[in-house]
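It is worth pausing here to work through a concrete case rather than discussing structure prediction in the abstract. The textbook approach is simple: state the sequence, then state the predicted structure, then interpret. We follow exactly that order.
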Amino acid sequence: MLKVGELAERAGLTVRALHHYDSIGLLAPSARSPAGYRLYDRDDVARLQQIQALRKLGMDLAGVKAYLDRADVSPLAIVTRQLAALDDQIENARKMRDQLCRLQAQLARGETPALSTWLTTLENMTMYDKYFTKDELARLPLVTNPDAGADWRVLVDEVGALMDAGAAADSAAVRDCALRWMALLERDTGGDGTLLMKLDTMHTEQPQVQRDTGISPAMRGFMMRAIGEVKLEAYAKYLTADELARMRRHQQGRAAEWPPLFAAVAAQMAADPSPATPAAAELGARWFELFQDMVGDDPATVPRFRQALESEPLLRMGRGMSDEMLSWLRAARQAGAGAGT
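Step two, the predicted structure:
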């Protein structure tokens, strides 16, 4: 049998991660040593292989647990899914190789490849690999849907014309564009908050993406204000005028702080899923401070805010935070408060 440290080293995980898996009922050791140390047998290792496989396929921990707890799940099914994912990666690598071979042939003939050829090769080699795994790209509708680019070009042109005409972010025409913008983001990320967050980060950090899409930082900011107005309209059914005014001030002053926080949370959860760490506590504190700045500290406000989120699908579109992230942040804040941080 393997001790927890030995299993962590062999699996490329931290001991804290295995402790967390035990605490949430995802992977419990089959035995304990006389001294109380966790001991893992063959069946435990097999289950950990399945957990890691499903995580690489894009499942969050809650989804992995729910999947493995089903009576009809077999190791064969999971290995089959792994093989399918590897086949996708091999196909992506083949396409990359074909692109490089075409570039090599042009250079060997003494030709000067077109700018688009260099850009496509450079883009495939660096940009997407930096932000997305191959599996994520395979399930990112923005990449797999051939109509996605055309739909965005039409909308971007409309928004650009409205901006040039001096339209206000809360005007009817801009509101219509904001709703379509949200719908396209939902469609082209499959409603996956993690993919949306990575896409937003890539767009923010890569001038090339801004040039190719036509979505300048100014346009992005304009649409974020417009989407904020659309969402405030939905919140108005549940919140008071003072509460809405506070949310508007938050959106105008601090809304840009949310995406980097989501990115940091996702990175920390991937590195160490336990919320009981100093890094997790710091993120939990940042989240709660931002949340309070947005909704205030009146205990009566929070239930109505949550009711709005649960009742209005529009408010969950483009949110960027999954339920797993939210639960993790709450646990991290509670652990940090208990430790006096």
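Step three, interpretation. Confidence is low (pLDDT under 50) at residues 115-119. The CA atoms of residues 8 and 52 lie 12 Å apart.
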